[in-house]
Amino acid sequence: MTPPHGVAAPLHGVDPAWLPDGALRGVGARRVLVRGEGVLVDTARTEVTHACAKFGGKMVGEGEAYELLLRVTGGGDQEAEGFLLERGDGRTTVTAATPAGLLHGYFHVVRLGGATFVDAPPETHRPALDLRMLDHWDNVDVHPVMGQVERGYAGGSLFWRDGKARAEPERVRAYARLLAASGVNALGVNNVNVHATEARLLTDRIGEVAAIAAELRHYGIRTHLSVSFAAPLLLGGLDTADPLDEGVRAWWRAAVDRVYDVIPDFGGFIVKADSEGQPGPFAYGRSHADGANLLADALAPHGGTVHWRAFVYDHRQDWRDRSTDRARAAYDHFAPLDGQFRDNAVLQVKHGPMDFQVREPVSPVIGALPATRVAVELQVTQEYTGQQRHVCALAPMWSEVLRFRPRGGDGPTVGQLAAGGGLVAVSSAGYDPFWTGHPLAQFNLYAFGRLAWNPDAEPGQLLDEWIELTFTPESTGDPALLRSGLRAVLAGSWATYEKYTAPLGVGFMVQPGHHYGPSVDGYEYSPWGTYHFADRDGVGVDRSRATGTGYTGQYAPPWSDTYETPDTCPDELLLFFHHVPYGHVLHSGRTVIQHIYDAHFEGVEEVVAAQEVWASLAGLMTPARHARVSELYEEQLRCAREWRDQVNSYFLRKSGVPDGAGRLIH
Amino acid sequence: MTPPHGVAAPLHGVDPAWLPDGALRGVGARRVLVRGEGVLVDTARTEVTHACAKFGGKMVGEGEAYELLLRVTGGGDQEAEGFLLERGDGRTTVTAATPAGLLHGYFHVVRLGGATFVDAPPETHRPALDLRMLDHWDNVDVHPVMGQVERGYAGGSLFWRDGKARAEPERVRAYARLLAASGVNALGVNNVNVHATEARLLTDRIGEVAAIAAELRHYGIRTHLSVSFAAPLLLGGLDTADPLDEGVRAWWRAAVDRVYDVIPDFGGFIVKADSEGQPGPFAYGRSHADGANLLADALAPHGGTVHWRAFVYDHRQDWRDRSTDRARAAYDHFAPLDGQFRDNAVLQVKHGPMDFQVREPVSPVIGALPATRVAVELQVTQEYTGQQRHVCALAPMWSEVLRFRPRGGDGPTVGQLAAGGGLVAVSSAGYDPFWTGHPLAQFNLYAFGRLAWNPDAEPGQLLDEWIELTFTPESTGDPALLRSGLRAVLAGSWATYEKYTAPLGVGFMVQPGHHYGPSVDGYEYSPWGTYHFADRDGVGVDRSRATGTGYTGQYAPPWSDTYETPDTCPDELLLFFHHVPYGHVLHSGRTVIQHIYDAHFEGVEEVVAAQEVWASLAGLMTPARHARVSELYEEQLRCAREWRDQVNSYFLRKSGVPDGAGRLIH
User: With CB atoms counted within 10 Å of each terminal CB, which end of chain A scores lower, N or C?
Assistant: First the structure.
């Protein structure tokens, strides 16, 4: 018996994001029958009740006339989250095999709005990926360097504050509601860098995780936990964390059993091991498969999964060592382990080989382990893409990644390859009233869930969908103008951001540590393996097999050949794969150096133009939302100019080549 | 009536530095008579008693035979700290007009050791500068970025810990003893960046300052306090801190009166105003003279002094603005105010125009205010000179500065010009058992005091003096070998450090924030005004009148002409004053680019050689001391190589000029 619950409406003082009451009009004005049992069916009833109270519809009982029927048929695949949508003869029916399917069907109907009740052929919807997870890099204690949320740009954590659980269940549930409406069904509640306090969430502080899980469960979201591989040492008092040690294995089994005692639908663990200082199996001469399988075995009896991150590289590299290539690291570590992982172990791979830069090739790891479940990790939090002070709608980038075919031709897409493990992203949400700091960054959070449900979705359609939901007609004086304005500032914003930051795929050039703003040489002589090798003659990293680090050889054909030479390498990735002279002519017809200048001037001009568009939208939304974005545009423009001027000055000073257009370079 | 006190010997577990018991043999083996009264005479008696207990001498009474007489004659200049030394006929007499003079005479005798008792003509000693002050940039609260001690590299603070007074009077007194033996007579107990907690030291927490003063007083050291110019707002509840407001003036008078109630010999205030975010008189449209005089007037009735720092510049400069020159700032701000400061207001000027780089010209401010009392500020804490992980004996640099004649010819030296205000330095001492972190960095602390007493002292003689005191013959198996080894590693260490860091006076090139280790472009595109303007053709800052910022015009002749052209500018300052092509030939006959390569290779080779010398000294001192320095040499060598390789790679990449000697540049 599930107690009734009441949070369907947005919380006072907190932005409703893509679920303002106005978005519920299509459902809320109808007679609705909900048939079925279970927590998520109750949630759907709460939602419908709320919507009908707002818009004059009615939740009807069995035997009464209805316009919308939401029903769970039972039977079939109880794990499935799909649903059948039938429209015609004045009645619309959503049929799901499971309560989760029913809830997803409900949110689908919300998205359709009035179109729900227009005759149409039956449609079957089901998620392309079973696991659609947001990972929160939230710390329980405020970390002295990284703060409450590592790489967080939206205030504090929704879950933790100053060492304690924040204990605001309504806020967590409101967040879960937004996520469920986007398609997300799993959530990691703490940072993959597990510090001392956070390690204890696994044991004596598991109750705090259970309290979060109790809220997420109402929206069909399973809770996952980042754990320390050294937990047996840190928490168990053992003298080893060796994955093959029977005492260690027993300790993990018992620990997992206790987790499931309080969180019966617990999703599993997320592990960052032997990476950037986190402990791992290497200390015991064991492989990552040994490490992952240790946890997988402990989770298996309960149906849990371990997500083992492939983000393993030498972060103490000597910049003088030109033979080591960080881009190679994940493949070199993990490709040989294919087939050695348990069925409930998932290798979680960042989408690119480096670290969430504005432009990277797709990681060769994704297509290289056919006998291993692979999850692909994206970064919704905008660490390297403007930190939620810049508008940078990432759906186009993610879409490119998800549609990429690592084996070329008719081979599977990244989206298809990720079906085995899921799509995962680092969340951008925090305690900020707009959830994501920048109000327009909500679109990234929304689009992630939608792409995880359907990796083939069109970014432009998702943008329209998000605009329709977020900016309901009743909230604005001129819906068409608002829509075109929002499209104008968002649709091309990733391309704009790329233009005014590091050029042609070379990446980084950010301020060390916090990663905001430019510093062309900021990581050039560092131990982090992120170099551009600019000198007076040219720039870029030679990763060819012929003369470079051999990284191109990690790709299957045709990409191994495409990327091998500047002739065939796409312009936007040229400096990722090749070191070329400033005078090298791109496929675009421009030289590299002129491209750098042009792109940086254009990028700033595009920000100026977007800012002007935004100004024209004043009055078409709440003043608070408009004002917040206007303020942030000031900072984006300042920062974009700083990028432009530092990058252009740097390359002018180095190359000595004047701008062909004679513009001012300092 | 002064209570007796006992701390003359070093504390257990704390290094005795330049006052090990062995250094007291010359005095301690004699019959000594001390004649006079007062706190400092009592201190001298305690010292003599301790020394005699160690070495078999005796403190004798009036009428008894003595070999050493220390006496205060009274009369004369009661402020004077000088003394007369007379040696002959088996008797040595130190005669001082004041107890302070007697104590300084005692430490002089300690330095002389056995030579005290060798016949010699009478000598009169007196300090060239009346104020010889160490400023501690110690915070009471641990600052989230700067820590307990800003720019501190020797553990915690001697005075404060985690928001409270450390309350270890014996440690403070032991420190005061070391300082007095070096010649220091004033100490600032808190950071010139005055944060909220530290501001309260002026008012409700003055008792904690008084407790420190009570210890320092036993060694003739007056206590000074850094205060916030905004204290009337922060602490007084006033709505202004306007220096011409009568309420503000009354508030400061009352605050100062309360300070003198509990610290009758309080020295005065140190103020950093309108600098790097600290509040100041500009907010009220008042001048720095108005600000300084406000505090001077409050202090005057009690004989106190305000030290007003001239470190005022725009720390939010736009790097694109080539017309602004931070080096000009102090002169531009303060030279027009000459003659406007009260008699008890001292303008405290950093020795160079920038910020304690390894090589800077002497600040033109020092010679530019003939009607103002000027103090010169040095930095003993090695912020930019290796942070007490590198051996860098600074006495040769300070000596060059102090002997410089800002008006050329027979004009006064910096040491003479500073006589009006004093010599001040940021302390390097902390809670570390070796006081200064690096055991060899003790020499810098010692040498500062000695140069403040006598700016004309020879650095080499001071080094020998420090070696003799610190490494007493009885503590080593081979005094001659040890002495030559210590000379070898210390005497040229500043020149070595200069070679492997930023070249030819251009400065900075350090990692932003903490300032340790190289980052050639670390401050190049920053708001801090510290640029080198390196491009593919050349490097350096044009500060000439003819074509640059005009900074050379702030110097009096002949320097205004000497620095104006590369032909006459000294090599070591060339890039501070001029932007030159890499092929520019130095007076040394080498090109700039070849000098950069050569100096960086040589610098590292010199560190290697020093490390080898140090290794050869094992067994000639306590193992703990030798081991600590050996460990630090590992780090110094690693860091020096990093400097060499980053700087050389940077300039090879930019200039394209290969090393003439064909050495490996990455």
Answer: N
- pLDDT tens for B112-136 read 999 999 999 999 999 999 999 999 9
Q: How far apart are CA A626 and CA A610, in angstroms?
A: 13
Place of tokens 């899921």: A422
φ, ψ of residue B309 to 5 degrees: the values are: -80, 140
Q: CA-CA distance, B76 to A197, in Å (whole number)?
A: 67
Average pLDDT, chain A: 96
Q: Taking CB atoms and an 8 Å limit, are B525 and A649 in contact across chains?
A: yes
Distance CA A497, CA A510 (A): 13
Give the global pTM. 0.93
Catalytic-labelled residue, pool B355, B360, B432, B598: B355
A570: phi then psi, degrees, rounded to nearest 5: -60, 140
Helices (H), B288-328: 288-299
Interface test with A, best of B525, B531, B641, B655 (most A CBs within 10 A): B525
pLDDT tens by residue, A549-586:
999 999 999 999 999 999 999 999 999 999 999 999 99
B276 is catalytic: yes
Percentage of chain A beyond pLDDT 90 is 95
What are the strands, taking DSSP E only, across A477-560?
538-539
What is chain A's percent helix, strand, coil content, to nearest 5?
40, 15, 45
- Helix (H/G/I), strand (E/B), else coil: A339: coil
**DSSP string for A595-644:** HHHHHHHHHHHHHHHHHHHHHHTTTSS-HHHHHHHHHHHHHHHHHHHHHH
Beta-sheet strands, E only, within B545-660: 580-581
Q: Report the distance separating Cα B593 and Cα B570, nearest Å.
A: 16
Euclidean distance between CA atoms A245 and A420, whole angstroms = 29
Residues contacting A567, CB < 8 A, separation 6+: none
- Residues whose CB falls within 8 Å of the CB of residue B620, separated by 6 or more in sequence, listed in order: B471, B476, B477, B478, B481, B482, B485, B626
Asked if B520 has any chain A CB less than 8 Å from its own CB, the reply is yes
Residue B92 near residue B98, CB atoms below 8 Å? no
